[in-house]
């Protein structure tokens, strides 16, 4: 019996020893510049302020165009702060476009008090959140995990969306690009009255 237990212990130790470590978190924003990011029309909507990306201005989207992209399966997280009445979003599996709302990829909502009822954490127009989990003027963490067709969204470690895209997802014409694929991330400038801050923007790749 002792030999059997010893053998099991050795096997367990070997199993642990050969478990590949999780990839490290990669920072997408250096806190000083917008290096690695690209915006087309209304570029003035985005600028760096006190170690954050401040979003304030007309409709625009800031795309990560750095060397780490594209991304397929991943964990993404950022610290976010909204001001009263503001609206923004975090896109994933998207791609750069000069203007307009990104046609490719999913949007994860950033909105705690805007007139749009779809609140922070919503997988916009796919699985929407009505509850408000965080307050304007306070930093919170928004986390997105994509593994295959499974999308999990957490606000301050609380799961608010758990969604699996069905095979051959049927989308209306204006949402045909909202499907799991691969791509990059983008931050949204929604309207001139919306002021939102992002910092500590990080991603960790997961196995494909």
Question: What is this structure, in a nutshell?
Answer:
This protein is mainly beta and 208 residues long.
Features:
208 residues; mainly beta; eight-stranded antiparallel beta sheet; five-stranded antiparallel beta sheet; 1 helix
Explain this structure to me?
- The radius of gyration is 19 Å and the shape is globular.
- The longest helix has 16 residues, at 2-17.
- 8% of the residues lie in helices and 38% in strands.
- A hairpin with a 2-residue loop joins strand 3 (46-49) and strand 4.
- Strands 1, 3, 4, 6, 9, 10, 11 and 13 form an eight-stranded antiparallel sheet that branches. Strands 2-5-12-7-8 form a five-stranded antiparallel sheet, with no helix packed on it.
- The chain is mainly beta.
- It has one helix and 13 strands.
Show the helix and strand layout:
Blueprint: H1 2-17, E1 26-27, E2 37-39, E3 46-49, E4 52-56, E5 60-64, E6 74-82, E7 88-94, E8 106-110, E9 140-147, E10 150-155, E11 158-164, E12 184-189, E13 195-205
Structural class: mainly beta
Distance between the termini: 41 Å
Helix content: under 10%
As residue ranges, the low-confidence spans are: none
Taking the sheet with the most strands, its summary is: 8 strands, antiparallel
Shape: globular
């Amino acid at each position: 019996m002792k030999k059997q237990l010893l053998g099991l212990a050795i096997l367990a130790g070997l199993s642990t020893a050969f478990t590949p470590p999780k990839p490290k978190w990669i920072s997408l924003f250096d806190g000083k510049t917008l290096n690695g990011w690209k915006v087309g029309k209304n570029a003035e909507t985005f600028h760096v302020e006190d170690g954050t990306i401040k979003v304030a201005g007309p409709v625009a989207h800031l795309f990560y165009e750095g060397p780490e992209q594209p991304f397929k399966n991943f964990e993404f997280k950022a610290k976010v702060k909204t001001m009263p009445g503001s609206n923004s979003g975090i896109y994933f599996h998207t791609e750069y476009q000069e203007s307009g709302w990104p046609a490719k990829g999913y949007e994860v909502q950033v909105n705690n008090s805007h007139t749009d009822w779809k609140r922070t954490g919503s997988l916009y127009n796919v699985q929407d959140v009505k509850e408000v989990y965080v307050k304007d003027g306070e930093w919170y963490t928004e986390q997105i995990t994509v593994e295959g067709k499974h999308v999990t969204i957490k606000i301050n470690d609380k799961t608010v969306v758990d969604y699996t895209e069905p095979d051959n997802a049927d989308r209306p014409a204006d949402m045909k690009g909202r499907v799991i694929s691969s791509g990059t991330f983008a931050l949204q400038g929604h309207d001139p009255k919306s002021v939102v801050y992002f910092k500590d923007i990080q991603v960790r790749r997961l196995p494909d």
